[in-house]
Amino acid sequence: MTKKKNHDIVMTMVEVGVMAALGFVLDELSGIMFKGVFVNGGSIGIAMVCVLVMAFRRGFVPALATGVVMGLLDLATGPYIIPGDAWRAFVQVFLDYVAAYPMVAFAAIFRKAFLNAEEKQKKVLFLCLGSILGGLLKLFAHFLSGILFWADPSGFAFSWNWMNPYLYCFLYNALYVLPCLVLSLGFLLVLFWRIPSLLKEPNRLYERKAAETKKEEDD
Questions:
Q1: Dihedral sign of CA atoms 57, 59, 65, 70 in order
Q2: Which pTM was predicted?
Q3: Burial level of 14, CB count in 10 A (0-12/13-18/19+)?
C-alpha cells in the first residue's frame, strides 16, 4: 500500500470522526432547543449536513460510517425507546437511531455527477437532488418505525388521535425531518458557495497541488 493511500485512509477516518462528533453536537443542541415540542421524539436542526458533506466529499461508505457513529452516539446518550417486547424495541431503535442518519449517505449517488459537473448551477442541482434523496430516505426510516410501533392513537402527539396511524406517522415525522432537510440543504449550499474546496474530492485536490508543485519545480 502506497504512502498516499495510507494517508488518504487516515484522513478519511479522521474526517469521519470529526464530522460525526460535530453532527452529534448539533443534534444534541437541536434536541435541547426543541425539548418537549416533539413529544414522541424528533427535533429540528442541521446535523444532517455533516453526513451530506461526507457524501459529496468522500463518498458513500465514509458518509455511511459518519451516520452510523452519529446514531450510536445519540443512542448512547439517552434513546427514546417505545415500551414493548425486546425484539420490537430492537427494531425501533435500529430504525430511529442506527439506520436513520446512515440513510442520508445515499446522497452520494449524485456525487460523481456533482464532481464532474463544470457549471456551478449543475453542481447545485446535484447537491439538491442528493440531499433530497437522503432526507426522504431518513424520513422513510422514521415513518417505518412509526407505523410499526405507533398503532395506538392514544399515544399520538398534538391531539391527533383522530388520524389514521399511517397518516399520523407520516405527518408527525415530516413535521421535523423536512425542516431539517431544508435547513441542512441551505447550509450545504452556503458551504458550497463560501468554501467550495470542502466539497471537492480530496484526491483531486492532492493531484492538482502535486501538478502545481511539479510545474513550479520545472519552471
A1: positive
A2: 0.87
A3: exposed
Whole-angstrom Cα distance, residue 51 to residue 164? 33
Amino acid letter at 24?
F
CA distance 128 to 70: 22
| CA end-to-end span of the chain | 32
Q: In terms of Cα–Cα distance, which of 7, 135, 110 is closest to 55?
A: 110
CA angle 138, 143, 146 (to 5 degrees): 135
Cβ-contact 153, 165 below 8 angstroms: yes
Do 112 and 126 touch, CB atoms closer than 8 A? Answer: no
DSSP calls for the chain: --HHHHHHHHHHHHHHHHHHHHHHHHHHHHHHHTTTTSTTS----STHHHHHHHHHHT-HHHHHHHHHHHHHHHHHT-----SS-HHHHHHHHIIIIIIHHHHGGGGGGGHHHHHH--SHHHHHHHHHHHHHHHHHHHHHHHHHHHHHH---GGG-GGG-TTS-HHHHHHHHHHHHHHHHHHHHHHHHHHHHHH-GGGGS-HHHHHHHHHHHHHHHHH-
What does the pLDDT look like over 128-175, one tens digit per residue?
Answer: 999 999 999 999 999 998 888 776 777 788 888 888 889 999 999 999
What's the angle, vertex CA 133, arms to CA 14 and CA 106, rounded to 5? 35
